[in-house]
Amino acid sequence: MTNSGQEQWSRVQDRLKAEVGDDIFSSWFARMNLEAVEKETVRLSVPTRFLKSWIHSHYSDRVLNCWQAEEASVQRIDITVRSGVLRTNAPKTRAAEAAELPREARTNPLIGPEHRRASAPVSAAHEALGGSPLDPRFTFESFVVGRSNTLAHAAARQVAEARRGDLVMFNPLYIHASVGLGKTHLLHAVTWAGNARGERKVLYLTAEKFMYGFVSALKTQTALAFKEALRGIDVLVIDDLQFLQGKNIQAEFCHTLNALIDAGRQVVIAADRPPTELETLDDRVRSRLAGGLVVEMGPLGEELRLEILKSRIEAAKQHHPGFSVPEAVLSYIAKSVTHNGRDLEGALNRLLAHSKLAGQTVTLEMAEREVRDLIRPQEPKRVKIEDIQRVVARQYNVSRSDLLSSRRTANVVRPRQVAMYLAKTLTLRSLPEIGRRFGGRDHTTVLHAVRKIEGLVGNDLALAEEIELLKRQLQE
């Protein structure tokens, strides 16, 4: 091919990028190559049939127009699927391989190049739609199962191993947990396993990436194509749903969620709290999410933390054979570093650095010194509004439905006010959210209840003692 042809192609790409925007261009056209310019026909190639079909259906006229702006004689664009052979016979450099990995996988010393290259390929749909990066470590094989995550793991595995046409059992599958307890690991594992089977189009997106894609599509007037592409996915995996913001974006997410579920497609979602506590989400979205299987991943117990440490050390030994951690050190870290799995990995990285870079033997004294800042004070139990309603109802011998009802009898009004007061003082929920959780009441009703109980507590010793007793029960 002549240099002039490549120069023309470069200018066409610039035109195309200016028209559709950087995000759309990188999703659909970044891996399109010029093969030949023959009289009135330009021959282009893409790596997958999915890309060919999508570009042909949605962008062929736009590509042709950009070419005609450069070369008026061009009348036809021919797109083919090129073979999997690289256009150059030169092997990829180690730097090129690393550049294709997510940032965390590139920088973590606990994994080596052999592990990185061994991960399954992502699907064409995942690449073409600009799916969020996947960490090659986060597979089902590397996930350590314990009492706190057994159900979440089993449900995720069932979703990943289902075949196209199978009855969808849990839809959506909604997994929630605090930071560092393995939500993202499971979502990546679902995506890796689904891609490896090759039967279904599996797409993993963070909520941030979903928002960015939708906003970019609106700006470039390609929102319809964006929606159609998402709704053609067999398994849509969304992470960190708590960050989904904006009325229009939430409405589009709700439409996409409904369209996929109604079409029998699988949706998997993770967030840091249950659907009922996602205050910023529209009621319709919360209702649809709660209608699936909602699974909580609890804190990591000491036994599970120890198993995670052993698993990570075995993985590290494959790439750093001399790395050894005494049982006493493992036991100390498992007992002391309790917050989440990321802190456990951070502790091992520090020990590995001293072992490999400073040539020091890992000892208990070293561990005590190096992980001191990772030993956090025990956080108070996170109190839920449902727990408050249950404990208050039991204390005052009324039902939870009484607290949520419109009844105004004295034996219900006082417990309801106490429950609202506790919800305001023991949780981070806003007044409107508390009102919604107490039968759809206005926030002014909640404010009145809080002020009423605050005023009574100062003068009514019996009530003050009752409330202190309820607080102790809720925080045990």
Could you explain the architecture of this structure?
The chain has 476 residues and is α/β, with parallel strands linked by helices. It has four domains: 3-81, DnaA, N-terminal domain (GMP Synthetase, Chain A, domain 3), CATH 3.30.300; 106-296, P-loop containing nucleotide triphosphate hydrolases (Rossmann fold), CATH 3.40.50.300; 302-374, Helicase, Ruva Protein, domain 3, CATH 1.10.8; 385-475, Chromosomal Replication Initiator Protein Dnaa, Chain: A (Orthogonal Bundle). Helix content is 55%, strand content 9%. It has helices at residues 3-20, 22-28, 49-58, 60-70, 94-99, 103-107, 113-118, 124-128, 150-161, 183-197, 207-219, 223-231, 247-262, 283-290, 302-317, 327-336, 341-357, 364-370, 385-395, 400-404, 410-426, 431-437, 443-457, 461-475; strands at residues 33-38, 41-46, 76-81, 173-176, 202-206, 235-239, 266-271, 293-296. A five-stranded parallel beta sheet has the order 5-6-7-4-8, sandwiched between helices. The chain has a three-stranded mixed beta sheet with strand order 1-2-3. Helix 13 links the parallel strand 6 and strand 7. Helix 1 (3-20) crosses helix 4 (60-70) and helix 21 crosses helix 23. It is globular, with a radius of gyration of 28 Å.
Question: Which helices and strands, and how do they pair?
Answer:
Blueprint: H1 3-20, H2 22-28, E1 33-38, E2 41-46, H3 49-58, H4 60-70, E3 76-81, H5 94-99, H6 103-107, H7 113-118, H8 124-128, H9 150-161, E4 173-176, H10 183-197, E5 202-206, H11 207-219, H12 223-231, E6 235-239, H13 247-262, E7 266-271, H14 283-290, E8 293-296, H15 302-317, H16 327-336, H17 341-357, H18 364-370, H19 385-395, H20 400-404, H21 410-426, H22 431-437, H23 443-457, H24 461-475
Parallel strand pairs: 2-3, 4-7, 4-8, 5-6, 6-7
Antiparallel strand pairs: 1-2
